[in-house]
Hints:
Number of helices of chain A: 19
Strand content of chain A: 5-15%
Largest interface: A-B, 129 and 129 residues
Largest sheet of chain A: 4 strands, mixed
Oligomer: homodimer
Strand order of the largest sheet of chain A: 2-3-1-12
Amino acid sequence: MADSSQPRTARRAERRRVQGAPTTPAHSQPLIARFAKFNLIADADVERIHAASLAVLEKTGVVFKSDAAIDAFRSAGARTHGQQVFLDRPLLEACLATTPAQYTLHARNPANNVTIGGDFCATMPGGGPPYVHSLDGVRRPGTLADLENFCRLSQQSPDIHVIARKAVEAQDVPVAVRHLRCWQAALTLTDKPVQSGFVNGKAEAEDALQMLAIVLGGERAIDGVPVAHCSVNANSPLFYDTPMLESLLLFARYGQPVLITPFVMAGVTGPTTLAGTLAQHNAEVLAGVALTQIVRPGTPVLYGTATSNIDMRNANPAIGSPESAQSIAICAQLARYYKLPCRGGGALTDSPIPDAQSNYERMFTLLTSLLSGVNFLMHGLGILESYLTMSYAQFVIDLELLAMLRQFVQPIEISDETLALDTIHDVGPAGHFLEAAHTLRHYRAAHFMPHISLRQPFEQWEAAGRQDATQRATGRCRELLAGYVKPALDSTLEAALQAFVERRTTNVAR
Amino acid sequence: MADSSQPRTARRAERRRVQGAPTTPAHSQPLIARFAKFNLIADADVERIHAASLAVLEKTGVVFKSDAAIDAFRSAGARTHGQQVFLDRPLLEACLATTPAQYTLHARNPANNVTIGGDFCATMPGGGPPYVHSLDGVRRPGTLADLENFCRLSQQSPDIHVIARKAVEAQDVPVAVRHLRCWQAALTLTDKPVQSGFVNGKAEAEDALQMLAIVLGGERAIDGVPVAHCSVNANSPLFYDTPMLESLLLFARYGQPVLITPFVMAGVTGPTTLAGTLAQHNAEVLAGVALTQIVRPGTPVLYGTATSNIDMRNANPAIGSPESAQSIAICAQLARYYKLPCRGGGALTDSPIPDAQSNYERMFTLLTSLLSGVNFLMHGLGILESYLTMSYAQFVIDLELLAMLRQFVQPIEISDETLALDTIHDVGPAGHFLEAAHTLRHYRAAHFMPHISLRQPFEQWEAAGRQDATQRATGRCRELLAGYVKPALDSTLEAALQAFVERRTTNVAR
């Protein structure tokens, strides 16, 4: 189908494009779900879960292990008993009234700013796994070099909107200074917004905000301007611990977006029945959301979920299960009910390796997330083994899955030109379209062009070495890493970051 | 979590159940999508595609290579030109007015009758692949023994509702008598409804109906009682060939359900743009539907789709593509628009082996089909390599995917018992639910229990031999085949089938 009248270099460039060789890094492309969102349960059932959560908040309450949080709740009029907080409907409604339904997350390169909320679905790689599934297929502890590699891969992909500051735990860096090195890697190797993720207490939170301020124009420039999400997980059931609360309080004071994400495991940290687990989950989210709004009304806050079940045979979490997908769909409905942006799902699996299981499970949770209206896909790439492992090959496969999903939901143009009635008439019954002028006008842009998925005769596949998709992804990953181009960063800012890291490292070492 | 007060045999039975050993064959369990269906495009765009199809039918027309079909169209008032038929809106509307929105497909065991239409989603294995991906991982021509094996696997699964008479091409049986041996296998090894699928002309269609009559109570018993779908593919663009029409005419005369399934490949047998390909596809479906209703008003007919794109690099079909998923979703919308049951999707992939690709692609098309309201998932199990290969291991993986989807869409009970507010209160903040009475009451039935998917500590997986999901499925397939139990069939009927096959074999050989 190549047009032989093209000059040779153009043909070569076209061939390269079509064959999927590395290309110049592109800006993020939004993933937009313009359709009516999928509702797994009826509106009346959403109301019933809401009512049950209110009953939990009024009667059972939630424990906050932080005097500052308790003081905040008290000052807002909540009833407290020691560190247990009881919330009633009027206070909750007042807090929910100040949450934004949509906001912009700012990047150091404004071309990579991301909208969170509405029809937008932003994606981020997995965050937090202690292990890496290497390009050699070995599972080993994560390192700073791995984290840097995942930053490089993330920078290049138009389908990754937010960088994971902790795509893996950099276990070769001492714990006390690890967060500094991770922030430095993410802020220098990429120019997209960076996810703070879990922050281990006040000092780490302060370091994070200071490093963000360095590259984004100073402390004032980030005050009330969303630049980094902080992740706050409830310790289910109904409990928020001190480090989580310290980071919540500091991020909220700066008007930085807070992700409230209970990770209830039905049968262990919540009731076995999904209805009960979601009622408790929802109560935990609402309590966290309330605190953010008491601290600073209008602070962006996301309705998060990592809630699922366990395998009753061994009590292992089951994050790629049908119950996980149900939980994603229903939490997205609850988030819509409260007019909150939703974080959920991602590419989830319990498989230890990038195999058939890891791919049917992750496509299940990914597609459910997108159709259900999740706005922020954390763990959108690379995750294996119930969040314990980050895989290079799976990461590159996931780039393909996200690109497939973007193509799937992009608006289908229905116009005289695309309906092509004249062409259909000219070709006529039993004809073919290969040489039609309409085909030549459209074939380049019309269809998704995969990098990993094969469609080719069996004999060609055999002759090319019988590689499976995971092996092909491994090869492509090496190409992508080799093709990485570091984005521009003012050398003064880069030096300032370096100086900050050195100073803090010295302080910590003292 | 085992209740040690149970007697030992009960505990053993429970352990067997939980560990997923073969169990007694179960009747089919319906897959019911009780939610509002997913709409990828706006209603106005559905109307535009409909209007474009009407224009194609009025101006360009469709060729039917059958004098009997042309006579039927003429008698209904259609304009014809040789074998080209032009349909106008009034005639089409009259034909659409007599199609049933829902019907029951009858099995020789009434417990396995299946509802087609409404919120129901019936599944059938792949049909027609010439090759098999064996349990040893080798691709080779399909045999009658393979077909029999897929019948045995299908009979056992509650998630397979319709048996594929041609799950593979039995290439070791001479073409002239192959259909007889396939029907005999499907009708004796299973007691679920059997899919006729493609029928190569009038003689084969007559044999099919006679063999069905033998096991279902005589010719009168199947006249107007749906017992087997016949598949009719248009030869796109806008062309129906003689063998397809012969079987359509005979099946419709018996009131047997007809599947009208264009397999348009955008860019080759239809315009490159999806809008144009779907306008043409829809015109082809409407023309076929009209013929069924002219032959016998009220004949069940399904709106089918196998339409997708090709890979522009090598012109290979791309059935696991985002465009394939778009086509499934939009055709389901078109079917709803016409109040026709919809056949589409299935577990589709272009991968030659049961790997990561075959599993992310099939979960994409499967879940899209279910959420979009497809009523009949043909090719729901086993398909690899763009319909060319049927895989044992993938078949068993697909059993798991269908079971996951059934769990996902089953209604979630929201009641005082499942909301469990008292239990949440009693456990309280930072407690756990493992020993709660509520957990003991519910844990057995609450969650999906996989046969293939693992959720277990990495070290356990390593110690157990590091099998990937495909290897585990291969092992389970051997277990399922060993555990097969042939369903009862009256020996007189079985002998009558045998006699019919022998008589026809002799006739054909003459």
